[in-house]
Amino acid sequence: MLAVVGVLAGCAKPVPQEKADYVGEWRGRAMALLITQDGSVAYERIKGGARTKITGPIQGFKGDDFVVGIPVFNTTFEVSRPPHEEGGKWKMTVDGVELTRISGPAPAQPAPPPASSRI
């Protein structure tokens, strides 16, 4: 079992900078999605009385969609609206469900001004 976990962890690809807005914890109607900067995903959805859970590494992005799992067993999450700010909240639509980011990376902070060289 540990060998499988190690193989899966080794398959994760960090979220590329241009997709950094995907990182965070997202919630919607009967759906929860966690995407970490290191490329790990935890997903849970209740639909039609059935609960689906998927945990695995991101294999990559195809446009706005992202693929999770290992090469022979993976799932593509269809993103019809990529992350965007709306009314002060971050939202995206995945597999037809509008999600709101409830936590995520801290916004980029501007670099501090250079220290004074006066003595």
Break the fold down into its secondary structure elements and pairings.
Elements: H1 2-11, E1 24-28, E2 31-35, E3 40-47, E4 50-62, E5 65-70, E6 73-77, E7 79-86, E8 89-94, E9 97-103
Antiparallel strand pairs: 1-2, 1-9, 2-3, 3-4, 4-5, 5-6, 7-8, 8-9
* Rg over CA atoms: 17 Å
Q: Main β-sheet: number of strands, strand sense, barrel status?
A: 9 strands, antiparallel
Please bin the fraction of helical residues.
under 10%
CATH topology: Lipocalin
| Topology as a string of helices (H) and strands (E) | HEEEEEEEEE
Query: In percent, how much strand structure appears in the residues?
Result: over 45%
- Highest CATH level, the class: Mainly Beta
What structural category do the secondary elements indicate? mainly beta
Q: Return the CATH architecture.
A: Beta Barrel
Care to count the β-strands?
9
| Shape descriptor | globular
What are the segments in which pLDDT stays under 50 over at least 5 consecutive residues? 1-9
- The overall pLDDT, averaged over residues, is 85
Give me the number of helical elements.
1
Describe the structure.
By secondary structure, the chain is mainly beta. The protein has a single domain, classed as YedD-like protein (Lipocalin, Beta Barrel). Helix content is 8%, strand content 53%. The protein has 1 helix and 9 strands. The chain has a 9-stranded antiparallel sheet, with helices on one face. The longest helix has 10 residues, at 2-11. The relative contact order is 0.19.
